[in-house]
Amino acid sequence: MTTMTVCPANAIDQKMSWSRRSPLWDLDLNELSNMAHIPKLQQDMLFIRALWEARLDDGVGLKGEALERLRNPPSYPATVDDPAVDFALSMFLALEHSSEAAYEDIQTAAHRCFPESDIPSVTLSVVDSVVDHMCINTCVAFVGPYTDCETCPECGTPCKVKVPQAVFHMIPIGPQMQALWHDPDSAHQMQYRKRRTQQIAEELVAYLNAVQEGCIVENDMVLMVSLDGAQLYESKESDCWIYIWIVAELSPDRRYKKKHVLPDASRDTNFISYLFLILGLTDGPGLLSLSRHGCCMHCGLQGRQKPGAPHYYPVLLKPDNYNIAGCDHGNVDIYHLPIGTSANYYQSLRLLMQAPNRAQYEQHHLQTGIVRLSFLLGLQPDHISGVPECFSSEIMHFAGANTAALFVDIWHGEMSCGRSDDQENWPWSVLTGKTWVNHGAVVAALQPHLPEKINTYYKAAEYITWLFGYGPGLFYGLIPDLYYRNFCQFYSITPAQVLKASECFAEWETEFEELYYQHCVDRLHFVRPCIHLSNHLALECTCWTMERTIGNLGQEIQQPSNPFSNLAQQGIQRCQVNALMAILPCYSKSCDSLPRGACELGESYILLCKSDKCPITIPPGGAEAAAISAYLGRPPPRFCRWACLQLPNGQIKTRVSRNVKVFAVWNPNNQQDDVDEPRWQFANVAIVSMYSLPHDELLTISHSTLWSCTYHSNDALCVVDVKSIQSVV
User: Fold this and answer.
1) How many domains does the chain have?
2) C-alpha angle 233/239/242, rounded to 5°?
3) Which carries the bigger pLDDT value, residue 259 or residue 607?
4) From the CB of residue 326, how many other CB atoms can be counted at a distance below 10 Å?
5) N or C: which end of the chain has fewer CB within 10 A?
């Protein structure tokens, strides 16, 4: 994942020296500025230089007390000694998503009940936003090179007035990061990266290079930044950009929690020009805006185009009878495709910047794959892992939207057919007519029997459930075997096989082209960018944190009349509340305490109520009694039943039938009965009914993705230790 560093307050203005050079140390902004002749490239350079030259004392960002707090944060834990203030903070957090009037009403009621109390109003100033003028049409914010503009450079609307018609809020990350160091326990959690660095040194080669070169020092804080577009309302114009900060100093079980994800939002369509935005991770469209390169990894793959068409496709295999200049290279060996580096990117960038006119620019653009300059070049080279090294692939839209849409269009016969092609020769086009209708009915009928649901808030999750959850079982026998095998191979990689993932995806991509594209120039469009993206997934990929944050913030907007301003205020309040709970963790709703009546078994296994008040005796002669007797080697004793078991991964196994994964099953042949006297001890066990072994042929043809087993009910009951249960399926 993309990483970059932010210096702590006491090192912000210090000139730090490094033992070795950063990947971008050779970047010469003056040289690039002098080379730029195309207006868009010249504009890009203005923003990059503004970001490069940004300082705390330039009067643009934080000022006054906020800047003083950033430079001199408290060095002691915060406490609240006044009961009235304690009550006010607790009430504020309880009413976080309510109106100010609700807080004031409760404040008044408490004062009537306790006249001697003086409950104050709460104003959180630990995190302040930086407010700037913005175009009334939300085109741009007037910052950086746009600071002195009298009219909007995008739409031409006059915008310089005494009272701003629209404002843009930027939430600085510095105060939020400092808040995480106020409390001793939170400070300990913030040292997770440091501890893990020492533990897995050999597995973090790229990251350790940055540490050894001095780009990441002991007191630095490493962040991941994720960006995505969102439409807040389905039936009205409400599209905007939302970005979040993910604190890599925290362990994975904490860093993705809502209280540790730090959001911000913008309606500004030219948002990346803003001086203080540092971006790293994003979805497909956002990544193109961020990297300004056709392939975010800047790999050496050259595209191919159809005769007379402007679009290029990332096709590995050369079409038959194909001689278009610049695209007629031979078959590409995907196993030896070079990985982009900062040095290669810089050389390509210099070539693009030297273009004296539009025609030369278009030629160099096609040659290098670079569209515009990445604004990340404006970061100090000591604080970035390099361009394009800092960019990451994006897996959510890849699996949940792009790939799903590709398979649907191919199998449903929706792909456009060229002149030399014939849909009658498409053996994969089988989900049509009544077959497609019947398939939909089968999917709908599955919902009562499977834990995954199709109707959810997230469309990507619905596609993934259908395609990868239901697909291997439903598509077998429906799609021809060759295409079914290729589909199953696409996602047959397990976490244990992640080291081989790159090789597996490369094999799948080549086979996909052989099966569907078949060297036919009129099928070049079958090879969409997501096909090439699969080769980068094994190297870098993003998570779902961004999507969950968009969903959370969207649900918290209470006033639909002005969604953008309300969204900005929700982001500010979220950051303020997160900072408050980091400084004063006593106000955080702890999830560590056990529910009433629960019993902790160790290793994060917890028995949850209800339970039998008194031990019971199981009727002899039944299947359950036989299973317990086989486990103990003697008649079953009296025991207590519990309603639920909480697993270490947070899942809850109820006493009602659920499919579970277990590590191993006890073998009764290993039981030793030759003991002089019984030795009794308490044990926490579960009775499970084991499935049969999976069907060999289906397991093979589906690349181990389809497990077809027989349920034997009471004929296969056995007893296992509860700690052998790995997860609920």
Assistant:
1) 3
2) 105
3) 607
4) 13
5) C
